Amino acid sequence: MKALLKNTMVIILALGLTGSITACSSGSSEATQQEGSGSIKLTLWDQSVGNTDPSAKLLPQIIEKWNSEHPDIQVERTGTTGEQYKTKIKTSIAAGEAPDIFYGMGGGSFMQPYIKSGNVLEITSYLKNDIKAKMAPGMSEAIETDGKIYTLPVYTHIANLYVNTELFDKAGAKIPTTYSELLDAVEKLKTAGITPALIGEKDRWPGMYWYDIIAMRQAGNAAVLEAFKDSAKWDSPDFVAAATKMQQLAKAGAFNSSMFSMSYDEMLGAFNAGKGAMMFQANWVNAGIEDPSSAVKGKVKVIPFPIFEDGKGKNTEIFGGAVDGFYVSSNTKHPKEAVEFLMYLSEQLGTKGFLAGAGLPSWNTDGLDTSGLSTLDQSSANIMKTATSFIAWWDNILPADSAEAHKNLIAQLLAGDITPEEFCKQMAQLKPTELSL
Amino acid sequence: MNSVFSNKTAITIFVLPTLLIFCGIVLVPIFVSSYYSLLDWNGVGKGTFVGLNNYAEMFNDPRVLNSIKNSLLFAAASIFIQLPLSLLLALILASNVKGEGFYRTVYFIPVLISTVVIAQLWSKIYNADYGLLNSLLESIGLSHLAQDWLGQKHTALVASFIPTLWQYVGYHMLLMYAGAKSISNDIIEAAKIDGASRIRTVFSITLPLMRPILKVCLIFSVIGAFKVFDLIYVLTNGGPFFTTEVPSTLMYTTIFDTYRYGYGSAISVFIILECLVFTVIINKYFKTE
Question: How close A360 comes to chain B (CA, Å)?
């Protein structure tokens, strides 16, 4: 009875809340259904539905190929757009009605509660060494949680600075490699009447990306990792200096004045329309920038975030490296077949998606023809090759409520509502990460 | 017909299906939510029973208090701006103006459009870079007033009220219009013969006779203000800095972004209680015979 009540409540919550939201963008969700006479049916949920998202085109092809080669194991896919997807998957896992295979955000705090509560199938025993050998170096370690494996990698994403070279030339600004050059560029761009950098702070995580990279450049990745484990360390001179620099940039007018009402999607739209000279984002924006509909196609360069003269971070210390992948529900009736499909899907999507510009590969790509990759994808891949260390998205590393607090604090910092000192004091109140970093 | 209404079996047969559905999708979830509100629970796994701790925390949480303040402001704006406006339009419309049907339809259109569409529409109107509102201000020489309406603390709240007020003006207008139209012409004519002016007729005849419908409108608009979610969610998502946050958006963030199902359920229970209390108050002080 209790389970029934719980199911009813959760379904109603999901219908009531998501039903009204999903109507907001046309074509926001689409479903591909495969009819088959197979005895086993597997369901797959993912969030790749965007018009310029290469995975959205690849997924149906990969599934179609699998279905025709495996008449007895048929896969049915449902795609839902990003923010709604998160709500949908959380609700259905809570209701015990998760699909057999579903997309999960990079191993951090998003998946952690479900792994802990046993809602995700452990696949360690299914994996043979030959599949591990096909992965890129370091990947089989990256997907482990306390020595156990729950997912296979698909893509890796890293964040870098995107600069619109045309606008930089127009303003006579130099593409920045250091903090003082960055400030200088901001001033020149402003004088020329160009918005130096775009942030879609309505969604709060784009602003978080800026603070996080600034903190990593100021304190260095090692110090940041320490602070994740011991929150008191957030209140140290390096992080105060980082917050001061963030506020200094905001006060210098580096960001669009409309940032608090601009969403992430609007930010991408504005950058692709040439309305801002810089954007700090991960390489999932590449396909949109290189899309024929983009006004800045071919004019954008991707560079590592500038280093700081007084900072301990190096430009080989990378923000990102998060491994996104698919997970198998522990409720699945066909674990063996689901894992088999998971392996097929992850490798196919990882390699084909890399060639289509969806993300950097988590799989061995030797022997693949990469000449068709866009310049942006190639330079992102080259930046990743220089990496000496990775720190993934902080809101995935921090526990969920601390992540929310972190994002809200950064918004206040950007608006000048709190001083860098207060910011760091409040950061020191956050809960430490639950992940083993 | 009377025999059907006095037959208890017939009543049960007709009412039971609806009653069951209503219980299943409305009453049961409310009780389940009330139970969840006593837990410290992340939505998966096991919750710990914490009694009324969530409620105690709620009333010490400045974010919750601020969201309640916003919903009260919103209710006040509905009562003192939206309803008088609807009433005015309804009375004008009911006084046999030319093109009655046309105006009735036009004012009702926003009610038919999905709230999400309306929110998208208004967020474009308010947009700081290319918005209609700023362009309008610039074209009439008031460019110093142009600003980022939804992105600033001192304008965001008012800017997000306006679309909801606007959206439901047509709805209340239609209810009141029906109320005004249902008043028998004989009474109006009798007043005319007695020499009452049009204004006098409105205050002495129309409004008193519209009391029942006015009460319904009042309850609807107050409850609507307490429950508002979709419009705020799309327009501002409670931002910037929680200035436009209402209990329902806070509930959503608490449950789905910070995984605090127990605390979020406590907020949802509060919303229900808030609506109930105000319905009772309005019923008490707005008695109709």
Answer: 27
